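Bit of a strange request maybe. I'm writing a small parser for structure token strings and I need a real example to test against, not something I typed by hand. Could someone generate the tokens for this chain?
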Amino acid sequence: MRFRPLILTMLCPLAWMWGGWLPTASAVPAAEFQRHIRPVLEEYCYDCHGGGENRGGVALDAFNSTTNFTAGHDLWWRVLKNLQAGLMPPARKAQPTKKQKELIAQWIKRSVFAIDPLNPDPGRVTLHRLNRVEYQNTIRDLVGVDFDAPGIFPPEDTGHGFDNLGEVLTLSPMLLEKYVDAAEKIIGQAVTPENHALFPESRPCGPGWPARVRA
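Reply from user aminoacidic:
Good idea to test on real output. This should exercise your parser:
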């Protein structure tokens, strides 16, 4: 039947999509760092992370030149997390003001990770396949076939207690083969020479519909 390849395609998983997270800054506002950021770091952070001190493997004075101070993305990401969580500077140390903390945080976001507030990056969106239960219910609702997906497809991985997250719903070659086999069996049950329920010979006439549709 000429519709068979079309149905087979519809019953198999769709394509996947990956997107980037944060772009790399192409231009570094060194003057802003030297004028506004470095003085705050010197006052509150260099006792432990400057002047030869690198507690926790963090040496902030290693980024004083105009060419390399935004190179350490991993380091600045740690600085940002600890600063916003109130973990750094430690509670026993003098603390920067709320305005100074926000100044550093915004500089890291804009200059190190090149986040543009006027053109925000929404992150990535993952197109994901149906899990076993979703597939079984969809087949039943779509073509009226009771397909035992949990008994045929392997269990899904889970993330955060859920088995329907796109990030964990991988598609292995073996699972793809099972999808193709399942689609063939489902088509065989749903479409037979005696039963064209999926593609009726006629449909009600109306605006935009042909008077007759052939299978």
